[in-house]
Amino acid sequence: MRPYCSAISLAVAIATMTTWAAARDNIWVVGSSTAQPFTKAVAERVAKVTGTPAPIVENTGTTPGFWALCSGVGSVHPDATNATRRIKKSEFEVCQKNGVEIVELAVGLDILVVAQSRAGPPMKLTPAHMFLALGKDVPDQEGRLTANPYKTWSEIDRSLPDIMIEVRVLPQISGTRDAMQELFLQKGADSIPALAALFRGDSTLRATAKVMRTDSNFVVVQENQDAIARALVANPDAFGVFGFRFLQANRETLRGVSIDGTDPTEENAYSGKYKGTRKLYLYIKKAHFDFIPGLDKLAPEYVSGAALGPNGYLLAAGFVPLGIDDLMSTIALIDAMTPLRGETLKD
């Protein structure tokens, strides 16, 4: 048995050395465009402190970021991904299939906003308005689902301006798009009594609330959130959905739209009043800690005094930190680095 066991051990060692034969000595992160500037700042500071080469922090979108992270272990695969939503159960199962252990860390907050040009007519919307504007199928007068007939906001609600519905959003691969469908469309559909009754009668129908119309009232912007901001300036009647950081960066020309009577602000996000609040996540591949210099410093730097203390560089960049209870939970997870288990995940 001993020679056989030795052969197995040697094979494992050779496989490991092959995997890391061209090992990188810089951190490689993929994922969300919303979180990318913050993770890039953190990774660059880690590289500076540890004397390692400049990190690679790619804007791939949240969903492709999870695909890349879970594809395998080794230098040809990224070390971490940042995301604007939790990993889905099906994505986590790909990680497990490929032998990838990941640590899940909530690192901050993002405030999903509906924005418009300051030159446009001021708007106050509800999640129900958003669903009726963007849903593929909406209830008719008898409460039955039918193809979305609405072309103007005033057709949805007479108190809204009589202007064409034009809402610009990011592609499906974006975590921002996922969050919009969950936080605005799904909640909006749930708030409509006729739909709530349909959902109670057939729970499989509830998923249809996230299916979006495909006509000209709904515009997918393939570039990034900056492109949406530029488009809103060009058309004061248009609206866009993106992260709070981009609203801050363009606050001279754009304003946030009130949702259910609450403005998108940090104070309203912390209080729980603003319904468009979501967490930003960092997922790190645990097996890479032993091979990528400085990777073990990435998560601690995210919650460091230099990043989040007085004059912290992340705060100066528009980062919204977690509330104190969530922050303490994340610090405890960083100390333990316990791999994620999939029991609480969903699709």
Concise structural overview:
With 347 residues, the chain is an alpha/beta fold.
Task: Give the topology, please.
Blueprint: H1 2-19, E1 28-31, H2 36-50, E2 56-57, H3 62-69, E3 80-83, H4 89-97, E4 102-117, E5 124-125, H5 127-134, E6 137-139, E7 145-147, H6 153-156, E8 167-169, H7 175-190, H8 193-201, E9 218-220, H9 225-234, E10 239-243, H10 244-249, E11 254-256, E12 258-259, H11 266-271, E13 277-285, H12 298-302, H13 305-308, H14 313-316, H15 324-336
Parallel strand pairs: 1-2, 1-3, 5-12, 8-9, 8-10
Antiparallel strand pairs: 3-13, 4-10, 4-11, 4-13, 6-7
Structural description of this entry:
With 347 residues, this protein is α/β, with parallel strands linked by helices. Helices cover 39% and strands 17% of the residues. The strands form 3 sheets. Strands 1, 2, 3, 4, 8, 9, 10, 11 and 13 form a 9-stranded mixed β-sheet that branches. The protein has a two-stranded parallel sheet with strand order 5-12. The protein starts with a helix and ends in an 11-residue tail after the last helix. Helix 5 (127-134) packs across helix 7. It folds into 2 domains: 23-110 and 278-336, D-Maltodextrin-Binding Protein, domain 2 (3-Layer(aba) Sandwich); 111-277, 3-Layer(aba) Sandwich (D-Maltodextrin-Binding Protein, domain 2). Strand 1, helix 2 and strand 2 (56-57) form a beta-alpha-beta unit.
Order of helices and strands: HEHEHEHEEHEEHEHHEHEHEEHEHHHH
CATH topology of the largest domain: the name is D-Maltodextrin-Binding Protein, domain 2
In terms of DSSP E residues, the strand content is 15-25%
The rounded distance between the terminal residues' Cα atoms is: 45 Å
Largest sheet: 9 strands, mixed
Class computed from helices, strands and strand pairing: alpha/beta
The name of the CATH architecture of the largest domain is 3-Layer(aba) Sandwich
Proportion in helices = 25-40%
> Low-confidence stretches at least 5 residues in length (pLDDT < 50)?
1-5, 8-18
CATH class of the largest domain: Alpha Beta
What is the CATH superfamily label of the largest domain?
Periplasmic binding protein-like II
Q: What spatial form do the alpha-carbon principal axes imply?
A: globular
Average pLDDT, rounded to a whole number, is: 89
- How many DSSP H or I helices? 15
Computed Rg: 22 Å
Return the domain count. 2
Number of strands: 13
